[in-house]
Design goal:
The protein has a single domain, classed as ABC-type transport auxiliary lipoprotein component (Rossmann fold), CATH 3.40.50. It is globular. The chain is built from seven helices and twelve strands. It has 222 residues and is an alpha/beta fold. Helix 2 packs parallel to helix 7.
Length: 222
């Protein structure tokens, strides 16, 4: 009887865990696009970092407000590489980043970053693509400490935009933000806690997890 009671307690606990895992986390929109607009041939712009003193900043692509913080120098390159690899793994054909960067150099960095939507339109015309993906990073704070104990946990905040190259219309936007917390601070994070084996992870790992969350909801054709 005692063993049977223990089994019931364990079953209840596991059910509660899976319920929490299933119900926790921000919902991300599932978007479909008409075939006339959709394409699996994409151009990806390098990630753009918005470095600001305040805790809230405005996205230069969509104009939405986003939580912000310190951004490590390597953040833009890391996120750009993750985005390229993530889309390629999902079957998208991507214009070589070296070609995109060469064209941006020709434009001039100041001009290219002054209006990211206008730059997306220019690049779409130059490379004959329908769709452009633009990413913006608002925070990329590295972990201070080790995997078993931290002074400051890692934190990331970034967004992705799918832009119609012909007219600059934003077809889809989604964002991801996470500051790793101990399970005692937020029980709703139990799914990620178990997946990460209860360790304090790096900003790169947070970014990797976040990128996959967003790309799993990347628009599909109708």
């Amino acid at each position: 009887m005692k063993n049977r009671g223990k089994c019931w307690i364990m079953l209840i606990c596991l059910t509660a865990i899976f319920f929490v895992v299933g119900c926790s986390g921000k919902k991300h929109p599932n978007v479909t696009l008409p075939a006339s607009v959709y394409s699996r041939h994409l151009l990806i712009m390098p990630f753009y970092a918005v470095r600001a003193k305040g805790s809230i900043v405005t996205c230069p692509v969509c104009g939405k407000s986003n939580p912000a913080g310190p951004i490590s120098p390597e953040a833009e390159g890391i996120l750009t590489d993750m985005l390229v690899v993530g889309l390629q793994r999902r079957g998208f054909e991507v214009i070589p980043m070296s070609d995109v960067e060469t064209e941006i150099i020709k434009m001039g960095e100041k001009e290219a970053t002054h209006n990211l939507v206008a730059t997306a339109k220019h690049l779409a015309e130059r490379f004959k693509v329908k769709l452009v993906v633009s990413g913006v990073v608002f925070e990329y704070r590295t972990r201070e400490g080790s995997s078993i104990g931290v002074e400051k946990p890692a934190a990331v905040s970034f967004s992705l935009h799918l832009i119609e190259g012909e007219n600059g219309r934003i077809l889809w936007v989604d964002r991801y933000k996470e500051t790793q917390k101990a399970l005692s601070e937020d029980i709703s994070n139990i799914g990620r806690f178990l997946k990460r084996k209860g360790k304090w992870v790096t900003a790169r790992r947070l970014a990797y997890d976040g990128m996959n969350v967003l790309l799993d909801h990347f628009p599909e054709p109708e």
